[in-house]
Design brief:
Strand order of the largest sheet: 4-3-2-6-5-1-11-12
CATH topology: Glutamine Phosphoribosylpyrophosphate, subunit 1, domain 1
Number of domains: 1
CATH superfamily: (Glycosyl)asparaginase
CATH architecture: 4-Layer Sandwich
Order of helices and strands: HHHEHHEEHEHHHEEEEHHHEEEEE
Structural class: alpha+beta
Helix content: 25-40%
Bound molecules: glycine
Largest sheet: 8 strands, mixed
Radius of gyration: 20 Å
């Protein structure tokens, strides 16, 4: 069933709170009532390590910070965690031993986006992405240009790789075939803010020991992240090559626009990709989603994808749905 925007707005308390905040002539009684209609924030992020980011995002929202502040500072927590081998300065380097980071951010209001790819030596790529969005006329900066821009903006530099990651890289170089299967886990964090708007961000060091210059899905709008303020937000983690070829996060939001719940939308997206892709279900992709009503969900191509959900009432790790190969029909459906 397709929900029209009009029906949707009628259903939604969000409409009441956003509308009310914009009416300066309201009586104080009406203002008080509108506070009661404030949306309860819902913050969803990939993996159990996202929970610490969610908690920080919630703290910022509860202190009156904006949705974008919550996304940015929430993701900072994971970017600051040097034990995390997939995000920030603790991330795995590329095949040349250089850490190249990818990140993006989206604001539902204004449908704004900013992104950096293959940026080197900047502690918080999410902040660089936000500055691209807010301070330039562009959406995406890459490589040396992205770094130069971040430095001009006064963003903090950081030594990377860490000593430990460098040792691992040297070992990988010495015996490439054994460690080629190293994994990576992006943080994508999406939220419905108390102002009723949707926001999201993504940050990763990407595929361990990737080719220099390789860019994954995480800085690609519609790939690793997509926010439509009238519908919902979605983010991805896993092998970026299997997400970006299908505009994965955009597909999730499109399914929600056509009436799917966040869980259904994530599941349908993984199924749609698996039906087309020569790899079938062997994709290593996972999606999280939240809709304008504050419903959330997740799904992946394999069992066991865990993600973090935080609201003022709870903060916990949940397990996403997984596609079953039975549902796909004859292995790989459309595959040649
Ligand atoms: N999903 C992150 C990457 O593939 O780079």
């Amino acid at each position: 069933m397709v929900t029209t925007r009009r029906q949707f707005l009628q259903d939604s308390s969000v409409f009441l709170s956003v509308g009310a905040a914009a009416w300066p002539w309201m009586t104080s009684e009406a203002k008080e009532k509108s506070m009661l209609n404030k949306t309860s924030p819902v913050i969803v992020s990939t993996w159990p390590f996202g929970k610490a980011s969610n908690d920080e995002a919630l703290r910022i929202l509860q202190q009156g910070g904006s949705g974008l502040d919550a996304v940015e500072k929430g993701i900072w927590v994971t970017e600051n965690d040097l034990s995390n081998s997939s995000v920030g300065a603790g991330g795995m380097p590329n095949a040349m031993g250089v850490v190249q980071l990818d990140s993006c951010i989206m604001s539902g209001p204004g449908h704004k986006a900013g992104s950096v790819a293959a940026i080197e030596g900047i502690r918080h790529p999410i902040s660089a992405a936000r500055r691209v969005m807010e301070k330039t006329r562009h959406v995406m900066l890459v490589g040396a240009g992205a770094r130069e821009f971040a430095l001009k903006e006064g963003l903090e530099v950081a030594e990377m790789p860490t000593e430990g990651r460098r040792r691992e890289w040297l070992q990988w170089k010495a015996e490439q075939e054994k460690s080629a299967a190293k994994n990576h886990d992006t943080i994508a964090l999406i939220l419905l803010a108390p102002d009723g708007h949707l926001y999201g961000g993504c940050s990763t060091s990407g595929w361990a020991y990737k080719l220099p210059g390789r860019v994954g899905d995480s800085p690609i709008i519609g790939g690793g992240l997509y926010v439509d303020d009238e519908v919902g937000a979605a983010g991805a983690t896993g092998i970026g090559e299997n997400v970006m070829r299908y505009c994965g996060s955009f597909q999730v939001v499109s399914f929600m626009q056509r009436g799917a719940t966040p869980t259904e939308a994530c599941l349908e997206t993984v199924k749609a990709i698996a039906r087309k892709d020569p790899k079938g279900a062997d994709l290593s992709i996972n999606f999280i989603a939240v809709d304008k009503k504050g419903r959330y969900g997740a799904a992946g191509s394999a069992q066991g994808f865990s993600y973090s959900v935080t609201t003022p009432k709870f903060s916990q790790v949940e397990t996403g749905r997984a596609i079953s190969t039975k549902e796909l029909g004859p292995v790989g459906g459309n595959r040649p």
